[in-house]
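Here is the promised in-class demo. Please do not try to memorize the tokens; focus on the logic of going from shape to residues.
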């Protein structure tokens, strides 16, 4: 099976050795005449070397492309992606799942809507059982971008000619782009180095002298020459249909590219005074970003406060779960209150027992509180780091220094926060709240009114459980609010303030040129983005000319070049090379 797209094909020579670029082997040689068998054999030698380099010695396969470009006035302006045949039984050196791997490789190319699929089927087999045609039908059920090539017409059995003609005339398996029959060179002709021109004459003579297939010549459904013409027209027609979608793709890509280029466009000035001013502006922008982030005004990729709120909700949910275990343990102790009686007279209770129950249960919340602190720290560091990468991605020294500052400040702030959390738990050991607040929670639990005048009523064993339960509700409420506020204060607000102040100290006696040293990849990336912008702008200009109906002789070439852009936008590598009439640089 073949995938069809525009480009040209070249074979290599010794003066231009093969070069591996981006996983695609590119080998070039300018051929000023039509390719002959010797040149083809030379191309196959280099192609074999590339195969061994990419897929290993033997019969393995890989997804990388090997690109051969042929430049000649005698060849069609097309690109063919030659996909491997489907191997059902692995031979020595092939994996057991070779059939599955080959089919996955084929599907990777033929499922793309920009590709015209050429299914090559010998005439002497049942076309309905052909895997290649089944795969093409799966990705192109209506047959809009599938053309079938019938080969080996000289090997069919006598009496089957009518069946073959029915297939060619679209009566068996209909395809919008139809069928074309060709007779390629046999192995003996290849070994005898029969030129392509001579092979073309032999092919035409075969069809002209065939009793059944000669009619296909008049119907333009036979010979390689007819195939080349039809494929070129199919490609141009297919591109025309894709123009609206392609135009939108180019506009979107160009918009995104220009925005991205803004990040790389401006570099630091070369003079010391200008560089110092540039550094000041850069640090100020960073501090503004950090301030906006800490106040909830800036959203990088994920909303910082949405993440924090989610963690605080988990903390609150955990506190609510502890109410059940606390109530159960309290009721168990009350039921055996005599076991905790000290020197009190009968009828009096031991208040220390209730304090101990509360203190012990509240202490179990400390470890989850520290876990919450660590989680919040990780979230804040991640968000701050995103701001650092966004502001200083071009300056590795400044990026590393700022990242270290963030981690150092966060470590110090974490110690402060842990100390403050420990103090909060020590404070909770005091077991205290305002009477009015306690009465309020008692009312919510029991649905009864309470006041100071009713205090003697509360001093009963039957009321102990709700009294303690109401107080624990107050503890939960305090913990649910105060711990998140503490963590926010130390880990976010103070960190942002300290970092902003610390960043400005870089201006004091700093080596500005060192801080603003650009990564070597930045200049390369800037160049790549500019080149992509220029290519997309040229493609956009092509569309402008097409919509104005300009230069009919130029339009077909422009359509094909625009299609090259479509191939690249959709992840299909294109090959460098521009037809002589192309007024714009190639799209690679």
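The designed amino acids, position by position:
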């Amino acid at each position: 099976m073949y995938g069809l797209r525009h480009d040209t094909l070249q074979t290599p020579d010794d003066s231009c050795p093969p070069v591996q670029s981006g996983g695609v082997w590119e080998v070039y040689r300018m051929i000023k005449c039509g390719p002959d068998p010797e040149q083809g054999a030379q191309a196959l030698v280099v192609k074999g070397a590339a195969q061994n380099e990419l897929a290993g010695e033997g019969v393995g396969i890989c997804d990388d492309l090997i690109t051969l470009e042929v430049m000649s006035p005698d060849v069609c302006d097309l690109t063919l992606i030659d996909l491997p045949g489907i191997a059902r039984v692995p031979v020595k050196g092939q994996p057991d799942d070779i059939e599955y791997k080959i089919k996955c490789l084929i599907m990777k190319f033929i499922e793309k809507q920009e590709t015209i699929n050429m299914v090559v089927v010998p005439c002497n087999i049942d076309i309905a059982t052909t895997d290649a045609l089944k795969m093409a039908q799966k990705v192109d059920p209506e047959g809009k971008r599938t053309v079938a090539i019938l080969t080996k017409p000289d090997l069919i059995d006598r009496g089957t000619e009518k069946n073959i003609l029915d297939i060619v005339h679209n009566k068996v398996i209909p395809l919008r782009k139809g069928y074309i029959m060709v007779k390629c060179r046999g192995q003996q002709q290849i070994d005898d180095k029969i030129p392509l021109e001579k092979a073309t004459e032999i092919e035409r003579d075969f069809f002209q002298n065939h009793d059944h297939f000669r009619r296909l010549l008049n119907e333009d459904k036979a010979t390689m020459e007819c195939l080349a013409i039809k494929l070129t027209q199919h490609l141009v027609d297919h591109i025309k249909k894709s123009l609206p979608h392609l135009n939108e793709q180019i506009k979107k890509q160009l918009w995104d590219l220009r925005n991205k280029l803004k990040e790389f466009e401006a570099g630091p000035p070369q003079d010391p005074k200008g560089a110092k001013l540039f550094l000041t502006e850069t640090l100020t922008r960073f501090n503004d970003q950090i301030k906006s982030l800490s106040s909830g005004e800036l959203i990088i990729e994920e909303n910082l406060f949405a993440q924090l709120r989610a963690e605080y909700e988990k903390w609150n949910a955990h506190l609510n779960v502890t109410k059940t275990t606390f109530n159960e343990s309290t009721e168990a102790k009350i039921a055996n209150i005599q076991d905790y009686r000290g020197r009190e007279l009968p009828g009096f209770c031991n208040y220390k027992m209730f304090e101990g129950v509360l203190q012990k249960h509240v202490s179990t919340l400390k470890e989850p509180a520290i876990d919450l602190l660590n989680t919040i720290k990780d979230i804040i560091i991640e968000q701050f780091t995103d701001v650092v990468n966004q502001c200083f991605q071009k300056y590795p020294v400044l990026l590393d220094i700022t990242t270290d500052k963030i981690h150092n400040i966060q470590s110090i702030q974490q110690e402060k926060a842990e100390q403050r959390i420990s103090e909060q738990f020590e404070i909770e050991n005091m077991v205290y709240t305002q009477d009015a607040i306690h009465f309020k929670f008692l009312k919510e639990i029991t649905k009864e009114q309470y006041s100071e005048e009713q205090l003697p009523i509360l001093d009963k064993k039957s009321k102990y459980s709700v009294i303690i339960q109401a107080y624990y509700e107050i503890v939960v409420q305090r913990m649910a609010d105060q711990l998140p506020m503490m963590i926010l204060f130390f880990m976010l607000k103070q960190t942002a303030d300290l970092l902003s102040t610390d960043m400005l100290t870089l201006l004091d006696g700093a080596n500005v040129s060192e801080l603003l040293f650009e990564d070597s990849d930045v200049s390369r990336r800037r160049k790549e983005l500019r080149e992509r912008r220029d290519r997309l702008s040229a493609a956009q200009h092509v569309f402008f000319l097409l919509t104005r109906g300009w230069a009919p002789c130029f339009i077909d070439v422009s359509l094909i070049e625009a299609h090259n852009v479509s191939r690249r936008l959709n992840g299909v590598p294109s090959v460098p090379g521009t037809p002589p009439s192309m007024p714009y640089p190639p799209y690679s």
